[in-house]
Design goal:
This is Cytochrome c oxidase subunit viia. It is found in: Mitochondrion inner membrane. The chain has 114 residues and is an all-alpha fold. It has four helices and no strands.
């Protein structure tokens, strides 16, 4: 009898509770991860060439500046806080929506009157 067939026969004979107990035993006896070194424990960042671990990257500073700009209480909706480009996109979207609605109504009225 082949090894694969023997193992499948042995698995078939096992009771589900036995399988569950073996799985729990192997889960509880797994080895734990080794403790992190000093460099790894600094939020996953290793010290760079300058040796400063707590240095904030430039991308994070830009992100914080953008977040601060959006948090200002200036009674503008969030979709207009980006400046003039956001206003242009908003106005063009509303304009195209109105044009599309007008064209749809014109088409429906033309088909209804035909």
């Amino acid at each position: 009898m082949s090894l694969l067939l023997k193992s499948s026969v042995n698995l078939y004979k096992l009771h589900p509770k036995t399988i569950q107990q073996q799985a729990a035993r192997s889960f509880l006896t797994k080895k734990k991860c080794p403790p992190k070194t000093e460099e790894e424990s600094q939020c996953g960042r290793a010290a760079g060439a300058s040796g400063r671990v707590n240095e904030i990257a430039a991308g994070y500073k830009l992100l914080k500046d953008k977040q601060a700009r959006f948090q200002v209480k200036d009674n503008l909706p969030v979709w207009l806080k980006g400046g003039p480009m956001d206003r242009m996109l908003y106005v063009s979207t509303v304009g195209l929506s109105v044009v599309g609605l007008g064209c749809s109504l014109a088409f429906i009225s033309m088909m209804a009157l035909k």
